[in-house]
Amino acid sequence: MNWETVIGLEVHVQLATKTKIFSAASTSFGAEPNTQACAIDLAMPGTLPALNEQAVHYAIMFGLAINAEIGKISIFERKNYFYPDLPKGYQTTQLEKPIVGRGEVAIQLADGSTKSIRIHHAHLEEDAGKSIHEGDLPHGSSGVDLNRAGTPLIEIVSEPDMRNIEEAVAFAKKLHSIVTSIGICDGKMSQGSMRFDVNVSVRPMGSTTLGTRTETKNLNSYKFMEEAIEKEVERQIDLIEDGGTVKQETRLYNGETKVSKAMRSKEEANDYRYFPCPDLLPVIVSDDTIEKLRRALPELPDARQARFVEQYALSKYDAGILSSDANTANFFESVAANASHPKMAANWTMGELSAALNHADLSITESPVSAELLAGMILRIADNSISGKMAKQVFEAMWQGEGNADEIIEAKGLKQVSDNAALEKMVSDVLEVNPAMVEDFIASDENKRKKKLGGFMGQIMKASRGQANPQQVNQILLQKLNELL
């Protein structure tokens, strides 16, 4: 039997506020455990929450960015459950009246097609703490770090509109692009700033009835999402084809061990005993506030992609890569502005720089090679001071902190030889000391001659220690060989 996969995502986005959603405690990452959780975050007796206005504005900005309905009246509720990293015994969240209603997000697929993924809603809520099961803890014990408790989140809930891994990852990446572009999230998935819960079910191809779904929680990378979906689809199909049934449950996937396992049976809303939070008034948003936030929205990824195509004459594909992340887009535009060669700026940003960053597990904001340094090197390629091959040596030296392009070219003697008279002498010398190669070239047919040019080029580049301008050398070599025919 052929099976169809059905996928929906619940995406937790940590909002980039300086303080928590209901208290003045800091949200900065990396502090010592349990140093940034105040009495309000823990709902200690005698404390009352006070809503962070900036968190509300950030949620509205997301809604506006996806053309969603904005809840002019939204309500906070208590979601009751008991877990070590939730000492309050409940999470303050939204259910019946969320801040963001229905919207949609367009994704672009590898074949160039586009698809619209519907957003059911997005709601504001507080994050829980974090259970820790490793480090200096005694064997068999766990610790709890409550620094994250109370950090403001929006949870973005999609409809089950995705049918394969490619669509799910494209949707996740598009959300990342949107929230980072409008500045409401730093997008650092390794720090938990975006986490994905993946709902997966399968059904016979052609069926319109949804199968029983499972939810795999807390995936913090696209790679882990791909792996978790692939394993879960295979597990469900094997289970059904062997005569079993899929249970609605919550699952965990360990990206290190590549193991997926059941965590608990999937709860329904009534299991959480939701009720309106008695400590928080309804949130009322005026039309003026919505319009003010709409006017203040930064450039969105789709608009930026279209501008890159128009302004820099890039392909839609290249523009899509460079515009998907606000920091990458800013870096590219800075390189292009300083080097005046946008296509070369795009190639180096997407190519050598991106590869080096990935290898070092760094973001573009952490790049040892700044936009100004990269632009300076591109200018030296453009004026034929260095070849593309030499540029890779220069880039590596800049990455290691050895200076700017001009300093490195001078120190390493990498300046390209472009003097025509000097190159003509190099070519003549190589032809003179290789008479057998010249005779073989003359005796060959036209197709073989093209292949034999490489031998001459290799000799000439060796003689120049790689510093001869290859384009000029090729022209001079062809001219001299043709004169011998």
From TrEMBL:
GO terms for biological process: glutaminyl-tRNAGln biosynthesis via transamidation; translation. GO terms for molecular function: asparaginyl-tRNA synthase (glutamine-hydrolyzing) activity; ATP binding; glutaminyl-tRNA synthase (glutamine-hydrolyzing) activity; transferase activity. Transmembrane segments: none annotated. It is an enzyme of class 6 (ligase). Keywords: ATP-binding, Ligase, Nucleotide-binding, Protein biosynthesis, Transferase. Its EC number is 6.3.5.-. InterPro entries: Asn/Gln-tRNA_amidoTrfase_suB/E (IPR017959), Asn/Gln-tRNA_Trfase_suB/E_cat (IPR006075), Asn/Gln_amidotransferase (IPR018027), Asn/Gln_tRNA_amidoTrase-B-like (IPR003789), GatB (IPR004413), GatB_C_1 (IPR042114), GatB_Yqey_C_2 (IPR023168), Gln-tRNA_amidoTrfase_suB_CS (IPR017958). Residues 330-481 form the Asn/Gln amidotransferase domain. It catalyses: L-glutamyl-tRNA(Gln) + L-glutamine + ATP + H2O = L-glutaminyl-tRNA(Gln) + L-glutamate + ADP + phosphate + H(+); L-aspartyl-tRNA(Asn) + L-glutamine + ATP + H2O = L-asparaginyl-tRNA(Asn) + L-glutamate + ADP + phosphate + 2 H(+). Pfam families: GatB_N (PF02934), GatB_Yqey (PF02637). Allows the formation of correctly charged Asn-tRNA(Asn) or Gln-tRNA(Gln) through the transamidation of misacylated Asp-tRNA(Asn) or Glu-tRNA(Gln) in organisms which lack either or both of asparaginyl-tRNA or glutaminyl-tRNA synthetases. The reaction takes place in the presence of glutamine and ATP through an activated phospho-Asp-tRNA(Asn) or phospho-Glu-tRNA(Gln). Belongs to the GatB/GatE family. GatB subfamily. Heterotrimer of A, B and C subunits. This is Aspartyl/glutamyl-tRNA(Asn/Gln) amidotransferase subunit B. It comes from SAR92 bacterium BACL26 MAG-121220-bin70.
